[in-house]
Amino acid sequence: MRERFYTTIKAPAPLVMEVAANFDLQSPALVRAIFRLREVLMRSAPSAPREPQGLLAEMKRMGWVVLVEQPGRLIVCGAVCQPWQADAGFTPLPAEQFVAYAEPNEVKIAWTLETDLLGPAVTRFTHETRAAATDAQARSNFRRYWRWARFGIVSIRLLLLPAIRRKAERRWAAERASS
């Protein structure tokens, strides 16, 4: 599975990356609702109350690990899990083990935050997710899960991109006004 979404943001790439990495994933009410809907549909344990935190910090707390980082340009995170499980925990793998990892009935997932400078203060911001099953059983389980779960996962991305764009553009405008 590969999902790639992007938006153009009128702000410099390093600022866009900082805003994206520190954006509170669950600040949009619809994103919180999608997470709650997954809990209900999967009959998983309700999430513990959480403190607002940046996207990168929250993902690390959940078990994701940074596989590659190019400051201001690219962050790649990865984990292994069984997303079809009600309480699918994420297991971090060091970057040097991630590609070769092949334990049965698992899915390796990697996601990126990327910036490409299009002009002096114009950036294409991209968020990509890739998932690869380690064997036929995992592929079958993941496909069954992905048939319905993709609607919520894609919706989250489509909600986050404009929210990150608005926040980065507001911050850039404020920085220019104060200088």
Spell out the key features of this protein.
Alpha-D-Glucose-1,6-Bisphosphate, Chain A, domain 4; 179 residues; globular; 5-stranded antiparallel beta sheet; 5 helices; alpha+beta; 5 strands
Your description of this structure?
The protein has a single domain, classed as Alpha-D-Glucose-1,6-Bisphosphate, Chain A, domain 4, CATH 3.30.530. The chain has helices at 13-21, 29-42, 55-62, 95-98, 136-178, and strands at residues 2-9, 65-70, 74-81, 107-119, 122-133. It has 5 helices and 5 strands; from the N terminus they run βαααββαββα. Helix content is 44%, strand content 26%. The chain is an alpha+beta fold and 179 residues long. Helix 1 packs across helix 5 (136-178) and helix 2 (29-42) packs antiparallel against helix 5 (136-178). It has a 5-stranded antiparallel β-sheet.
Residues in helices, as a percent range: 40-55%
What is the CA–CA distance across the termini? 45 Å
- What percent strand? 25-35%
Assign an overall shape.
globular
Tell me how many strands there are: 5
State the helix count.
Answer: 5
| CATH architectural arrangement | 2-Layer Sandwich
Major sheet: arrangement of strands: 1-5-4-3-2
Average pLDDT works out at 93
Identify low-pLDDT runs. Answer: none
Topology:
Elements: E1 2-9, H1 13-21, H2 29-42, H3 55-62, E2 65-70, E3 74-81, H4 95-98, E4 107-119, E5 122-133, H5 136-178
Antiparallel strand pairs: 1-5, 2-3, 3-4, 4-5
